[in-house]
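Subgroup meeting minutes
Present: P.N., E.W., G.H.
Scribe: E.W.

1. P.N. recapped why we're keeping a running log of single-chain structure predictions: easier to compare across weeks, and new members can see raw inputs and outputs side by side.
2. G.H. added today's entry (106 aa).
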Amino acid sequence: MEIYLSKAAAIAGMHKRGFTNDFQLFGNDLLWIQEKTFIRTGDFSIMEYHWFRNESKKGTDTILFGVFSHHHNVMGILLNDYACYSAKTPPVIIKKINEMNLASAG
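Output recorded in log:
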């Protein structure tokens, strides 16, 4: 997995490697923005993630997830901003990160 120093560099690098679509989280499903299609939890995996601290807004972090939907054969980026004091990482994302870590360990 590449290491990036900024969000812009991460997005550019991920685009070069094929993560060219955009996703948004709705409950446990992803909305594939370009196709206006929902992707169910079992139909996508997190391939990588990059965590950035927002220095201008203390307590807010941005996480870029590299997502692959095997059912649709599409790769893209899920971008989430988290305020440390108000939001927690959604359980579906924690599950997908754990699955990614298990796959890379095996």
